[in-house]
Each structure stands twice: as C-alpha cells, then as structure tokens.
Amino acid sequence: MSGDAVTLGALRRLAAKRLAEAETVDTPALDARILIASVVGMAPNELVLADYRAVSMEEITRIDALLERRAAGEPVARIIGAREFWGLSFRLEAETLVPRPDSETVIEAALGFVDRTGGRDRPLRLIDIGTGSGALLIALLSELPNAIGLGIDLSVGAARAARANAARLGVGRRSLFVSGYFAESARQADVVVSNPPYIESAVIATLPAEVRDFDPRLALDGGVDGLDAYRAIIPTLTRLLDPGGAAFLEIGFDQGDVVRRLAEDAGFDAAMHRDLSGHDRVVEVSRGLL
Ligand code: GLN
Asked: In this protein, which residues make up the domain named Release factor glutamine methyltransferase N-terminal (predicted)?
C-alpha cells in the first residue's frame, strides 16, 4: 500500500466480508466488530464511532489471526475468551460452557420467586449446581445484595474460572466455589439453580460444530436419555432445599413433562417457565404448601 493508513472502518467492512464468505458464520458484521474491538481495546459498540482511526500493522496482523480462527468455525466467545450474560461479562475457560441467553430464564424465574416471597434484600442462601463460569450464581448475587452463594462444579478449572469471575464482578466476598460432587459439599439453601448437562449422549455428535467441538462435553452430556443429572439432583433437593425454598432447573425444550414428573415423584411441586422462544426451559421445584 502507498503509505495510506488503513482505517478501522475499512478494516471492519473487509473483515465482515471475509466472514460472510465462511459458511459457518451467521452474523459476520457483528462477529467482525467484536473481534476487532477486542484487539484495539474498545467496546464493540464504540467501534462504529471510530471509523477514521488508523490501524497499525501489528493490530492488523492480530486481527487477521482472529478472523482466520472465526472463519474456521471457532465461536467468537471462545476466541475472545468472554461472553456477556445478564449484562455482565464472564471470562471463559476450556472447561466452562459458553453462557446462553436461554439461561437468563433461570435468573428471571428465581428473581420472580424472591420477589414473591419477601423481597431481594433478604440474606438469602443460594446454591448453583454445575456452576461453570459462575454465570447463574454471579448474576443472582448481583441482583440480591445480601445473598451469599455456593457454586459447585465437577471441574476444577470451572470452579477456578467462576471464582475469578466473581471477584472481578464484585461478588467475590459473598461467594464460595468448590469442585466435586454437589451432594457432599452442599448445605441448606433458599434458592438452588442449575443448568446441568441435558443432551442425550447420542445426540451430541449431531450438534452444531460451535457447540460440539468447543463446549465441554461434561457440561452437555446428560447420559443415554439426557436425564442423568436430574435423577441425581432432584433427590438431593429433599435435603438441600429450605422448606420455603425453591430450585430452578434448566431443561431441554422437550424435557418439561418428564422432569416435572421426576420432581413430583420425589414429592415436590413443579411449575414450568418458558424462554423467549416460548419453549419450556426451567422447572421450578418446591415443597408447595405441604
Ligand atoms: N443449551 C445448551 C445447548 O443447546 C445445552 C446446555 C446443557 O446441556 N445444559 O447446547
């Protein structure tokens, strides 16, 4: 080039075009913006206001490497190692599932319960089973100023990532993260949340590559019928849930009836919450009025 500086605007358009040519990329312009922003140290929505800023050769080289990974099918959240959930930015590790918008249904349902039963200022005790990046527990702690929370994950790496996210997002002193089997570390809670693995083992191979190749299998694989985690978790709620408490379990869109039945067979009341697409997404488990 003749010494003319490359601008962010030009680079953004070239990058979007390049990603659009890759078949696996559904949102090329948005992905380009997020990846470029991560290199130049701006928020993605600031980038469009800086179209005339010059880009250095060094930045171009780094951006090029990220675009290459994206074009090859790696998800944006994995490339930048972060994903937004409930308006908070969570850092990710290889051992943590990328938080999904559907899981915000868990937060809405749990906050609805808290609002109904005495308000958000109470000193609530929360437990998150299979906490991953800590998204569910940390989002709840951010809304419940006097709550404390225990996050449990089988993966040591996930517990470490969740602990770091909690500290960074200002709830480190009100949370504890441990790895291991939940049955051994948990005590009574007012609110239990969980987004356990719920995909049938045989279905995992058919998932989109962004999920299949990049999300941890431990966070996806629910066993032969996808229900192993619920069969493990629901019986422990007898001990785990305070008599007036409730658990909010994320489910696959077609698992509502069967998980509700598992809860009722264990002596609980069960209610359903839908996600923004209208799918059954969260089963609320409580002791009802017994
Ligand atoms: N909702 C995730 C997906 O669609 C599955 C997460 C899980 O099993 N908890 O891939």
From this structure: 11-81
For residue 201, how far is its CA from the centre of ligand 1 (angstroms)?
Answer: 12
- The atom of ligand 1 lying closest to the CA of 102 is 1
Q: Is the CB of 20 under 6 A from ligand 1?
A: no
Would the CB of 103 count as within 6 Å of ligand 1? no
Q: Which residue has the tokens 């868990």?
A: 106
22 alpha carbon – ligand 1 mean position (Å): 25
Tens of pLDDT, residues 193-223: 999 999 999 999 999 999 999 999 999 999 9
pLDDT at 264 > cutoff 90: yes
Which tokens go with 63? 């951006």
Q: For 87-114, what is each residue's pLDDT tens digit?
A: 999 999 999 999 999 999 999 999 999 9
Q: Angle at CA 84, nearest 5°, toward 24 and 19?
A: 25
Question: Is pLDDT at 1 greater than 60 in this prediction?
Answer: no
Could you tell me which residues are beta bridge partners of residue 177? 151
How many angstroms separate the CA atoms of 214 and 235, rounded? 31
Q: Which domains does the chain have, with CATH numbers?
A: 6-80 (1.10.8.10), 87-286 (3.40.50.150)
The model's confidence at residue 2, banded by pLDDT at 50, 70 and 90, is very low
Closest Cα to atom 10, ligand 1: which residue? 211
- Cα separation, 156 vs 131, in Å, equals 11
**Annotated binding residue 117:** no
The amino acid that residue 9 corresponds to is: G
d(CA 139, CA 122) in angstroms, rounded, equals 16
Residue 40 CA to ligand 1 center (angstroms) comes to 32
- Does ligand 1 come within 6 angstroms of the Cβ of 195? yes
Q: Per residue in 49-71, pLDDT tens?
A: 999 999 999 999 999 999 999 99
